Amino acid sequence: MDANKVRVGHNIMIDGSPCIVLKANLRQQPRLACKMITKLKNLLTGAIVEKIFTGGDNIEEADIHSRKMKYLYNTGSEYIFMDNESFEQYEFPASKLADLTDLLIDDTDVYAMYYNGTPVNITLPPTVTVKVTETEPGVKGDTATGGLKSAKVETGAVVQVPLFIEEGDYIVVNTETKEYRERAKK
Fold it and tell me: Is the model's pLDDT at 70 over the cut of 70?
């Protein structure tokens, strides 16, 4: 693949390791070759690096495929997932999952990226439904600006929600931006 065609979400090989493109900006320079400035996450180590490619560079695509897994439980330092097809269980260290853990709910289906037959990364579904466990009550009539307040959900994450959301409500949260999407219909 040509370096100018790299986009966010592509899986590419860098120094023999599969990486996912987190950011990609094409910078055109007069009379010079274009430069693709990327931010990459190494799927094996979790390290994030920046790399600049010159237009015309040939980039190898990583042979990554995705399958559904179910999140089972965590032991504190390890998160346990089960492959929905083979029923094998895999452990991921908390450090590798980073900020995904604050929206993981038991028995949630997630997507695992497999490289050489081994899961190397987990991605959450686009949205999750969670229960609000802590929030201050909204003040009646205090909605002139469409205000927001903080709410703690069952997973421990803190999300900004509209004033009408109360403890015990279920809400839909965007897993990528960690923003309130809507009140869930439970």
Answer: yes
Average pLDDT rounded to a whole number, residues 73-93:
87
What string of DSSP letters covers 23-89? EEEEE--TTS--EEEEEEEETTT--EEEEEEETT-B-PBP-EEEEEEEEEEE-SSEEEEEETTT--E
Domain count within the chain: 3
User: Do 119 and 170 lie in a common domain?
Assistant: no
Residue 47 in this model has a pLDDT that exceeds 60: yes
Residue range 5-21, pLDDT digits in tens:
788 888 888 888 888 88
Structural domain that includes position 109 = 64-123
Q: Please indicate, yes or no, whether residues 131 and 172 belong to a single structural domain of this protein.
A: yes
Q: What CATH number has the domain bearing residue 31?
A: 2.30.30.30
Rounded Cα distance between 59 and 82, Å, is 33
